[in-house]
């Protein structure tokens, strides 16, 4: 006879899984990927280490799922920023500024998402992360090209270059706690788009 969990047991398991993921976010934000061990997550969640393994085969699988959840959250934030009133260039700048400001609020977590050495399953999710941001930027670059407010260009290539440059620039501020060149990202973005910026001819 095949064992089936009762709705009550399934609800308890789902609740525990959610608590483990919430705890993993806290550990990742405090200690990065290197310090995000199954034991540390279990301690933060207030469960036995074996309970974490009941839901996830290992650290890489746990953090890979966590990355997926965080990507959804962060992409939602930049999409909302891009949908605020403004011209195309302002919308792309809003994406960059929102991404940078949110990263600086949780620098250890952002560094783990962007650049910290990780295992292969997590690296795969990191690529999804970058592509999702690229697609948000590319959508607005494409709109600008079609409207004639941006010069002809490959929207996907421009978007990938902007996202890659922003990620690279952010590594310094995230590891040093010094905002540094973050303030120049808006100017860089406008120039990369070929958009007119009256304050930076």
From TrEMBL:
GO molecular function (one): transcription cis-regulatory region binding
InterPro entries: DNA-bd_HTH_TetR-type_CS, Homeodomain-like_sf, HTH-type_TetR-like_transc_reg, HTH_TetR, Tet_transcr_reg_TetR-rel_C_sf
Entry keyword set: DNA-binding
Tree of life domain: Bacteria
Gene3D superfamilies for the chain: Homeodomain-like (1.10.10.60), Tetracycline Repressor, domain 2 (1.10.357.10)
PROSITE patterns assigned: HTH_TETR_1 (PS01081), HTH_TETR_2 (PS50977)
Pfam families (alphabetical): TetR_N
Protein name: TetR family transcriptional regulator
Organism: Prauserella muralis
Taxonomic placement: Bacteria, Bacillati, Actinomycetota, Actinomycetes, Pseudonocardiales
